[in-house]
Protein 1
Amino acid sequence: MKLKRMIPVLLFAMCISLVSPVIASNNTPVPTETPKEVLKNKIETRLLEINKMDKSDLTTAEKKDLRKEVKDLKKQARSQGVYLSVGAILLIILLLVLIL
């Protein structure tokens, strides 16, 4: 009986002990660009360059290469996110239910 009462108290104490050092620190983090943000900015600038380009004097092969490059850049831009499958979401929910 005492063990059932003791587990929530210990879990609460453990949570408080993990959070208190974070609250106590006065250091404000300096925002820096991550490599993903740098890559995203490069992709955006290249797409803008291609859009501003005068394409009337390009050959069909050059236009085809530009279209292919734009498609590749858009694929890279889309692949920057994190995707969770249905199985992963169910696993996370089950873990949360078991823990809480």
Protein 2
Amino acid sequence: MKPHRHSTVRLGCTVLLALTLMVVPLAVPRPAHAADAGLVIEAFNVLREYYVDRVDAAVMLNGALAGVRSALSNAGVQGEVAEIPAGTSGAQSEIVFRTRFDAAVAAAGGRIAPTVLAYTATRAMTAQLKDSHTWLLTPEENRERVLRQQRQAGFSGAGIVLMLREGKYYIRDVIPGSPAASGGVQQFDRIVRVDNVPTAGLQPDQLSGLIRGQTGTSVTLVLERPGRADPVTVSLTRAPIQVPAVFQARVLENGIGYLQFYQFVSRSSAEFRGALNGMLGNGMRALVLDLRGNLGGFVNELEAIVSLFLPPGQPIYQEVARGGQTRAVRTFGVPLLPGHQPVIILVDESSASAAELLAAALQEHGRATVVGQKTMGAVEAAIMIDLSDGSGLSVTVRRLASAQGRRLEGTGVAPDVTVDLPVIELDQGRDSQLQAALQLARQRLGTAEVPAVPAGR
């Protein structure tokens, strides 16, 4: 899932459960070249071979042509791009598509690069499937994902996680060890300007593009901070950002542990186990597991983490492969966390894929209470395939359901206790969701005091 990840490895590709992670090639890729109509056809043929459901050439390539029409219109280019007639054979559909794509490139007259047109067409084609785990990454995005999954620095920047609320950009989290962390940026700071550019009206990718940049260059953030009347100006030197799996792991008052888990990347289950062991050694009696903003990752890491909470042989999730074969994936080994210790899981609308399956598994087995907002509903199993120009295509290869057979794709996991995080709370620096989870843990333990919130939270 990244949407996705699972322990299964087949065809040379790692199966994912995430909305944004990694690429492993199916075969040795051909030398990279400028994308054209051939890239769209290449992507279609990958879908035809590996996608969990049958795909129709005319339908899919008409979706690609719709993307071409939209790109031409947005660029003010006049020209008709007719659809491929329904029922056209696969081979003939490809021929017709190439002809119409090339005509669109000629009509654009350089106003739209063929590579941009090819990526737009491919994304429009995959959008036909309405599938959370089937999508295209550009070569740059693909390289970043590979590095992140391998726990390396995938980009250079300040090291913050953004949260958009009512047109305002807040700092959801500060990545440990980043320039933002050492520069004093705090959670729930609101970004007003980046250098001299106001953030009002910017799209998320535009804002990210302003903050990211070449290593060693500087970026200035103007922030509104809860409790401060005047804006705070922070100048940071961009650096390579390595995103850990565990952001925080500590034991608060009354023995309540707080573990903020951000992504299911390579070896993250070992990091998770180490964090749990450390907190148990420090007197943890209840656990608050924060999965907010966790977009998923490898399914083998998911399975190992669920196995830390449940006895062996318990179903974690169900999967349906092409052809309808169904199997239940089960826990293994001896659980690490004692069964009597309360577990509270925090989720929100940006918890996706493997994070959703983790929350659903512990919820359905009665092992955890889920607090927060309904999750994203992006739960399928996909493989990442490198295309010939270095871009990557995520392809759903299995349908997934919860341990009890609930389809979470498009619906998400509903919390047991719904708690919003409104702008008024953010502006006051209060994390009402975390406070509710800590209060519930306190009630489960029967303690009188409310534990202190972790620094940065």
